Amino acid sequence: MDSTLLRYVARRRPVRWRLLSAVAAGLLSLAGGLACAAEPKDVEAGRTLFMQATTPACAVCHTLADAGAAGTIGPSLDELKPDANRVAQAVRNGIGVMPAFDALSDADVQALAKYVSGVTGGAQ
Question: The domain spanning residue 59 has which CATH number?
Fold first, then answer.
């Protein structure tokens, strides 16, 4: 149900239906916001890549609270809040003193990019 239909139903029904409609609208809004959220297994895969499965590990250079990383060579990802595309480009091509991670598969790059952008609040 879209919000217009929910408002229509709320005006036409008793109080319990209005309450139900308000709850349904809230759940729909929440579901819309979670549509891009990563699955827990994807988050764990991204965290593992960030912490140890890359050489050098991302955590050596970058600060990322979710991973408990406090690197100071690269930017703080918590402050930068990069979107997934920006992370993927940096991982694939390198940037500044950061090397390109050619050994990572496309799936690994995407998992890492989604993880970093997801936990920092960057766009997916």
Answer: 1.10.760.10
Is the overall model pTM greater than 0.85, yes or no? no
Look at residue 69 and give its three-state secondary structure: strand
Radius of gyration over alpha carbons of the chain, in Å? 20
Question: 30-70 pLDDT, tens per residue?
Answer: 444 433 455 667 788 888 998 888 888 899 999 999 989 99
Q: Cis omega before residue 56 (within 30°)?
A: yes
Residue 68 is encoded by which pair of tokens?
């408990």
User: Residue 117: how many CB atoms within 10 A of its CB?
Assistant: 24
Helix 84-93 to helix 106-120 angle (10° resolution) is 140
**Whether residue 102 is found in the same domain as residue 55:** yes
